[in-house]
Amino acid sequence: MLKSFASVQLISDISAKCIRSSLRNIPSSVRVQLESSDCFRVPDFPEIRGHIPSTHGQMVQGLLDEESLTLYASCTVHGEPTARQVACMLDVTLYGPFELSEELGSWLQEYDIFLQDPQTCHLDVRYCNPQRLSSDDMGSCPMLVQFVARSSGRIHLQAIAEGPNLLDMLDNNVDLEESPQPRSIRTTLKRHQKQALTFMLRREQERHFDTRQPSIWEAIDTDYSRHFLNRVSNADQLEEPRQFYGGIIADPMGFGKTLTMIALVGSDSESLNVNTTFLDMMDVDEDDPDVATTLIVVPPPLLDTWEEQLAEHVHDGQLSFHRHHGKSRLSKTEDIGRVNILLTTYHTVSADWKTGKSVGQSPLFSVRWRRIILDEAHVIRNGNSGMAKAACSLNARFRWAVTGTPIQNRLGDLASLLKFTRVHPYDDTKRFDADISHLWKSGDNGEAIKRLKRLAVCLLLRRPKQTVCLPPRQDMRCCIEFTRAERDEYDKIRRQAITRIDEALDQDSEVVRSGVYVNVLQQIESLRLFCNMGLHYHSRHEQWNLKRGTDWSSVAQHDFDLRREMGPIICFICFGTIDLTDTLLHDPTTKHSFSRCMKLTCSECLQKLEPPGRLLECGHNPPCPSAFVSLSSIAIDGTEIVPSAPARPIGLPSKVAALVEDIKNISSDLKCVVFSSWRLTLDIVAAGLEQAGIRSIRFDGKVPQKGRQTVVDRFRNDADVQVMLLTLNCGAAGLTLTVASRAYLIEPHWNPSLEEQALARIHRLGQTREVTTIRFFIRDSIEEELSFRSKMSMYNRH
């Protein structure tokens, strides 16, 4: 908190004008930045310039010249929003030292400026309006957030300033030409999609070292010889480097990457005869015959999404596709050539690869595909996993990896994608480590980033978010105060948690000490859950304590999920990682081993043991108990214990009450999505919405895969259903929910990338309304600390 600052608000209704060079609609209210006494700009709309009349110019310049002041300005547009020039009113919020408030109030009165009570809070400071209430004691001034909440009777929202993103260093916003619209594609491609198509078509062409296209290698001719220079590392060699075709599409979420990849297939289908027979497509000089088919590999939950997208965007009869999964697997190689697209899953590829290695070739590994597309390609980031090895073993002419997060936990994640795309020489992980990762780990970040950028520009396409013309998005945070009863109970649980952790740390036994990690996780979860559930927490907590007992097998799954929420878990045999994103890859037959001391053995390492699949001891003496765990989304959504009677006389928890109140105050035709890590929280939210007469629908791990599209369709089409309640791991990937324009995140998560993936479900192509996202947190609680640490982890984990 800025303890030495006080807020002086509000200089209201300064008349001004907005002048713009394009006809893009302006929202009714936007944030602006004052640049001079007569000029302001709109950061979210660079084409707009604002003009302040001379009657206010001297006063505005005086405020700008006072270095101790921080100014926040907003603009409310009046008149026709599509006109070239529109009238507007400026509101300016002043933040400055408490000692300056009396002098500032008097100075503003000389300009006939009378400060208004605040309606918005930008900084967590005390409120002092010297023209209304004079005070010599800053401590007697109310907190601004509390004052706003009391005066408005509604929750108070603070704007979130967008911070840096490490993935932004991969941005290469080159102004590419636009490829023509493929005739087979029904949906008109956006400009950025046609540019992506140009990038991909160029990457699939035969390349020469003397072209102007970005390349890792440069041919240098001398009087005596020709040698080849690696532009990334500046190493050279005499042997001509082998070519690779394809690359990585890493645009942020919401760019319509699925449609773009469909358009790529549609582009080459026009030059290929769909009715060509299998024999016509065989190349006898190849070990595997060529087919004109594109293989698309996706996580299981996205099979339906891809089929829906193909049906929506492709003209009837233009691109044929088949699902190679479960009972619909193709058994004959000849059948592959009869379709343009074969859809399958990472699990199917992995299973067929293992089968093909031992009992003859699978159809997937018996041909050379025209193209392979890996969707959500970051799932193969562990290059040692069987899934990654299987994907890399597929044979294809063109290879594409599609992911909005090519680097999730470490630079090595990108190395796995380079291995799949066969980017020479960086398909060799050791070479990537030597040329790039080693520099980063040794602290030479500047050179590592330079080399990474030089590599990325040759094969990776990632554009800034501003490339896509989407409606404005406001990211807000909402600070909630506990009631007195909730605060007393929270502090009691916090003291108990500290005592239990201290007692565990004081133990001499190695086995007992190994349980400290579990104990810490459990206490953290208790505090986080109380922030959501308030006084409803105890009915759940007491039942869970009864269930836990001393049997590790009964609680291992729960504690594994808690640990996975906090970040990647490393297998202590192969050093591969597992985190929340792997929930997409859940296979009910796959089990991992997890010990009470937090040691993980992944399923693939377990299968290499003798006998295969047995539990592996952790190495402690005596060994800590171990149990099998899975990646099931049902497990991670929460336990099966439901708090009794959410609508008890104690009322709704403060956080849930604030959420329900905010939804009540918006238009009933404005749809919302609500995310939480736990089904338990959503149970209480659902009860609160029902009490308020607001209809909602659920989407969590309990919804079977076959029924998920039905839930989404009902939310889109049923006007009476205003709210969708989603668990974070189910709603963070693969869904398009642009029918909603307001998203709530009930609690902060350890992984801010997962938060952004979830909130991006509503801010993507197809959205027509201005979007608001709201993140809740409890003041002076573990949630404030968690929110800070999760943001810092984004910058330190690589």
Give a topology summary.
Layout: E1 5-20, E2 29-36, E3 39-41, E4 48-51, H1 54-65, E5 70-78, E6 85-97, H2 101-109, E7 126-127, H3 144-152, E8 158-159, H4 191-203, E9 217-221, E10 226-230, E11 236-237, E12 246-249, H5 257-269, E13 294-298, H6 303-313, E14 321-323, E15 341-345, H7 346-359, E16 369-375, H8 386-393, E17 396-402, H9 412-421, H10 429-441, H11 445-459, E18 460-461, E19 473-480, H12 484-505, H13 510-514, H14 516-533, H15 537-548, H16 552-565, E20 569-570, E21 577-578, E22 592-595, E23 600-601, H17 603-607, E24 626-629, H18 633-636, H19 654-664, E25 671-676, H20 679-691, E26 696-699, H21 708-717, E27 723-727, H22 728-731, E28 740-745, H23 752-759, E29 771-778, H24 782-796
Parallel strand pairs: 1-7, 12-17, 12-18, 13-15, 13-16, 14-15, 16-17, 19-29, 25-27, 25-28, 26-27, 28-29
Antiparallel strand pairs: 1-4, 1-6, 2-3, 2-5, 3-4, 5-6, 8-19, 9-10, 10-11, 20-21, 22-23, 22-24
Helix pairs in contact: 4-5, 7-8, 8-9, 9-10, 10-11, 12-14, 19-20
GO molecular function: ATP binding; ATP-dependent activity, acting on DNA; hydrolase activity
Pfam families: Helicase_C, SNF2-rel_dom
Domain Helicase C-terminal: 662-798
